[in-house]
Amino acid sequence: MKLARILFISCFIVSGFVLTTQAQESPTSLSEAIDRSLEHATSSRIAEADKEAADAASGILSSDYFPKINSSLSYTRSQYPQIVTPIRQKGAFPPLDDQIYEANIQADWEVFDFGESRAIRKKTKALADAANIKYELAKMETIESTSSAFIQLQQLRELKKVQQERIQTLKKNREQLESLYHEGRVAEVDLLKMDDTIVDAEAAVISTNNSIDQTLLRLSDDLALKQQLTLADIKPIDFENDYPFNPDNVAPEDAPSVIAAQHQKEAADFKAKASFRAFLPQFNLFAAERFRSGSDLEIDDQWMVGVRLRIPLFAGKRIVNNQVKKKEAKSQQIQLEQTRQQYRQQLNKLTNAQFETQKRIQSTQTRITYLEETYRVENTSYREGRSTLTDLLTTESKLNSVRAELIAMRAQLRMINLNIAVLTGQLNKEMAIKLAEGEPL
């Protein structure tokens, strides 16, 4: 009996500890989500791998001016005996053997090639710089994507709240209408209209729930979570303030996309330069040491050093390659100009959308004030029999639509701010949190 009591108390303590621990688990904040998405998001991981590959390709060991050392081992068995060692003395014939063991060590050092190898190295460094910029841009886009998901969830949370409040109001009005109906003051068709409006409002909540689930699923994938998040797992953000993000005048040359395109254009120029210099002579030093022996002979050691001057005379493939590289460099120049134009157009588009959204927020807030008063007046008028239910429901539907529009505009302003920060290359975690919360910078 005593043992049973001890086990019961122990189980009670453990269960209490578990419940306390679960109660202490707090919802995921935007800061925590950003940190996790930067670690697990596919796009940033791919960009990081590309950056590491480009950095490795541009390392000092990639230079062709470093000596190349090779070795080889071979065994040969032939039908007829072969010379094992070269002729070392006049009149003395070298030994023969039908089995030859040979080992070679060779070194080749490219001393001068009119800058071909140097141009290739500069090309890889330019590509590495471009990859680093793209990696930083990918991180900013990951931060923007996670912040936008939190903004969308808050928008849907606010929208669902408005929709549920509308349903409660409609059901309360329906009860009042039913009382009036029993008194003979309203027609049955008014009850049917109210029922139809309630069903439509409940269908809107279902649609909002589906949007919430889709957004949570996408966010869970970005955070590499095994179980899908619920809305309770997401810490709400503030939707009260509406501050626009006005960055300093960022010239196109300072935008990440333009800087990356500039590095890619430089890489194409260096590739074209290297392909042209491949037509010029190359000066190499080489050295080799050979170890050779037969089946019953001692190992013979012989070394040699030399100088090699390679003079290209004709190679059709190199001519074509040079033409291709020149066209690729021209293409990259055009792409750079296009990237500059796109940056200016996108920034102008986002700035205009930001201004328009601000004005729409202000006008929508004013409309809500007027519609609330209109709805109050029409509700009273309907109760007194001076207006129809259709007029009342039209005003109620318009009020609900404008409230949803205000929530959407507030979310849109925040996402526009994030897009501007990414485009201009200024977004980081701290800025993203402030922009999502609508706080001034």
Task: Spell out the blueprint of helices and strands.
Layout: H1 2-24, H2 30-40, H3 42-57, E1 68-83, E2 96-112, H4 116-182, H5 188-222, H6 256-277, E3 282-293, E4 300-310, H7 316-383, H8 389-423, H9 429-437
Antiparallel strand pairs: 1-2, 2-3, 3-4
Characterize the structure shown.
The protein is an alpha+beta fold. The chain has one domain (28-65, 114-282, 317-437): Outer membrane efflux proteins (OEP), CATH 1.20.1600. The chain is 65% helix and 13% strand. It has helices spanning 2-24, 30-40, 42-57, 116-182, 188-222, 256-277, 316-383, 389-423, 429-437, and strands at residues 68-83, 96-112, 282-293, 300-310. It has a 4-stranded antiparallel sheet with strand order 1-2-3-4, with no helix packed on it. β3 and β4 (300-310) form a beta hairpin. α2 crosses α4, α3 runs antiparallel to α4 (116-182) and α4 (116-182) runs antiparallel to α6 (256-277). The longest helix is centred in the last third of the chain and has 68 residues, at 316-383. 28% of the residues are buried. The model is unreliable at 1-24 (pLDDT under 50).
